[in-house]
Design brief:
Strand order of the largest sheet: 3-4-5-8-9-10-11-12
Helix content: 25-40%
Number of helices: 11
Distance between the termini: 33 Å
Pfam family, one: Aldo_ket_red
InterPro entries: Aldo-Keto_reductase, NAD(P)_OxRdtase_dom_sf, NADP_OxRdtase_dom
CATH superfamily: NADP-dependent oxidoreductase domain
Mean pLDDT: 96
Number of strands: 12
Oligomer: single chain
Low-confidence stretches: none
CATH architecture: Alpha-Beta Barrel
CATH class: Alpha Beta
Protein name: Aldo/keto reductase
Strand content: 15-25%
Shape: globular
Keywords: Oxidoreductase
CATH topology: TIM Barrel
Length: 329
Amino acid sequence: MTTLGSTGPAVSNLGLGLMGMSDLYGPADEKESVATIHAAVAAGITLLDTGDFYGMGHNELLLREALRTIDRDHVVISVKFGALRGPDGGWLGQDNRPAAIKNFVAYSLRRLGTDHIDIYRPARLDPAVPIEDTVGALAELVEAGHIRHIGLSEVGAGTLRRAAAVHPIVDLQIEYSLLSRGVETEILPAARELGTAITAYGVLSRGLLSGHWTRDRALTSGDFRGVSPRFQGENLEQNLALVEALRQVADERGVTVAQVAIAWVTSQGADIVPLVGARTRARLSESLGALDLRLSTADREAIEKAIPQDAAAGARYAEAQLAHLDSEH
């Protein structure tokens, strides 16, 4: 167990991200998804991460179903809000106005079937709303008992500092993996200065670092990797070559590529909690194995030789999406 930041809740050293059970990675089996959540909690995972826009509410309803046989006080539920979507699933922007936040949280509480959310965070910065106004509204929800803690997602160091001046921010959710290390330059130092933890998503880079991806894998409709730069043409070839180099390191340790990739993120500091997006019990079991893997200095050197910093081919999001990430500015 670890503590999220200097003021946050105690959570497991690994969290479960639920997005792929409802959205963006193609079809998922609901019964297997619920079984995977149950298996995660039974294995000691207490941090469950969702978003009100994952499947347009479907993900929260899925979690509600799983919670029917889970002690609510035993888990920490993290919810992202504010992303606007149309009936076709398209993205329409971000709304972080105080009135909208109160509306979003009311719907999330009802869908989840709970009287409070442990960590509540805007999915992205809303350029039309000062971060101070957003965090101020969230602080009112903390005071009223509807949420317990405030988190942020994909914001830069400057925005994080402005937010923390209004109310403690327990964690910043941001992409961090062997293929995405931009957080190390300014954002991670700022978070540590402020006592804010990092919940790292994309630790397997959308499956690239899972060790299971193949060049000829067909993507189903609705799988956003079909437009992700790292999965296109020569970029994919170069990235899979990096994975094969990492596989050699994993083979020498007698573990899987995914376990090495997750363990590397975990080894970056006690204040970093990886979120794994396992959609099946088999993938969950593999991810859990990373918790038993202790990397030596020699291991870390071999890993970084296999995948040097900035070695990834292609950006982590398409250009249009990167433009909306405060963390990239």
